[in-house]
Amino acid sequence: MTPPTPLKLLLSLILGVLSLFTGPAAQAQTSLIQNAPGRRVLSLNGSWNYIIDPYENGFYDYRREAFDKSATGKGGYYDNQKPSNSQEPELIEYDFDHSAAMQIPGDWNSQDIKLLYYEGTIWFKKDFKLKPTAGKRYFLYFGAINYESHIYLNGKKLGMHKGGFTPIQLEITDKLSATGDNFVVVKADNTRHTEEVPTINTDWWNYGGITRDVFIAETPGTFIVDYKVQLAKDDASTLAGYVQLDGPEKAGQSVTLNIAEAGLRQTLKTDGEGRATFRLPAKKLKLWSPLSPTRYAVSLTNGSETVQDKIGFRTIQTKGQDLLLNGKSIFLRGISIHDENPLIPGRARGEGDLRMLLTWAKELGCNYVRLAHYPHNEIMLKLADEMGLLVWAEVPVYWTIAWENPTTYQNAEQQLSDLISMGKNRASVVVWSIGNETPLGDPRLKFMSRLATKARALDDTRLIAAALELHRTPDNVVHVDDPLGEFLDLASFNEYAGWYWGGKPSEITKYTFDIKYNKPVVISELGGSALAGYHGDAETRWSEEYQEALYVNQIKMLSAIKGLRGMTPWILVDFRATRRQHPVYQNGFNRKGLISNTGQKKKAFYVLQEYYRQQAAKYDTGK
Ligand code: GCB
């Protein structure tokens, strides 16, 4: 074999960067349809046939050349080939229609026992009927597919996408069949790779498949693709935002913004790019808060199209170590949550599962949740708006990723942009988190500070944060001086005194904190494990009593921090994690939940609930 020339190497590097998003997916990612589920939709949820393909035989030929890159583009499972009536004996070595089916949305691990630990490719196929109406446009939309997906309609490739927790949107207007009979095929591959986001090492289950809703949105030829209707930065009397049209007639159009209940109505004109920005006086708005989660019916009308949303309005800002919601001090009574329904156990499959998680958080006394460690379902953000819970939303820049790889950075930035795009109209979202427990070092600081700058450029009305690193000195001082803190709005860090360090729960009150930043301290994690129903004394690891004592003493220790403005202990419910191997106490579950995987509340739940009751009495009454 001849070694590649430098030119060839350069070319392959450029192609590598471009291949992160190929086909229409690339365009789609820059402008996700705002409130896509609220458009006119045809749901493709339900039963999908699947084929397990660990060798990727449906994607590559025997020389390992991809079928979809061949001259005919044919040969892969996405052809969904069926025997024809010809006399020729045909060889077809797969058959979707006679293969097993699973429910979508839903991870594959929880639907077929032989897939519990599976990492690799699975093909999915769904038939649907849709006859396009002339003049309309159609978008195929997936809430999330973990991790790399190749998507085909009627045997033609639509695009490829990487990232397991952000929406995928593909225009299919010209690709629907005239007869109305269509089929969509998805190759989903959840193989972990060191250069991806997240990387190979995490403390959560690598659930594969089409884990969120699938539907087709129908829009007019020129339509309202995106909008932001929020309060201006730190200014409760000004409504600010934009409307973006897409389509051949996007320039010079009138769009009417109407918030009838607030007596607000304004007609805007789009510019040459189809965009109209606005700043309007908004004195009469009743502000959104956890105590009173007021949302307004907001409508945007362009010609025959009206898009409707329910939007709350609030401000969030920091002042030294104080944290102000609508100008008033607030204490964030939070809890961390994974996108998992422990009762399945598997990825949450829709509104019912998500509402159950948030109802538990409310019962705990929360006014705040950390949606760790990746973008959660858009429905979760809407429920948080409705139920009055503030949100920390995050991207899976987790532990040690490939800091020096430009493609890895682009990927992280894309996931962050998509998260912000999806959540920017939700009053509940007050924090964009750019990562969790990333290790100190120059390449990481460069990567993370660039991400922080990007987040601020995309949305200056929310706080930017990350779970920072800490270190201890022999004098029992815990130092938070991670240089990344300079770029962030909160002093947030994960702190595991009494579990990973610091001795028994009764010993941890000796620790004090030295926090370099004059910023609100919002602790992003603390906690320890307990197996529900296992009892011992406060020094018996894994017992409910140990976890209970740990929470009692954590609260004592943390209450001494000047500037403590909230916390999200780890975690609401036990969750599946391959790292957690102890056959008696863990059994494949991270047991730091305050609620077990069968829904049983552990003793520590009540400790935190009582602390939050006291904090609520102190802050929510304005005392
Ligand atoms: C952490 C991580 C979280 C883990 C947790 C644990 O610091 O951020 O993802 O699950 O600790 O249980 O160790």
TrEMBL record:
Residues 221-314 form the Glycoside hydrolase family 2 immunoglobulin-like beta-sandwich domain. Residues 1-28 form the signal peptide. GO terms for molecular function: beta-glucuronidase activity. It comes from the Bacteria. Residues 89-220 form the Glycosyl hydrolases family 2 sugar binding domain. InterPro entries: Beta-gal/glucu_dom_sf, Galactose-bd-like_sf, GH, GH2_Domain-Containing, Glyco_hydro_2, Glyco_hydro_2_cat, Glyco_hydro_2_N, Ig-like_fold. Pfam families: Glyco_hydro_2, Glyco_hydro_2_C, Glyco_hydro_2_N. Its EC number is 3.2.1.31. It is an enzyme of class 3 (hydrolase). Keywords: Glycosidase, Hydrolase, Signal. Residues 318-613 form the Glycoside hydrolase family 2 catalytic domain. Belongs to the glycosyl hydrolase 2 family. This is Beta-glucuronidase.
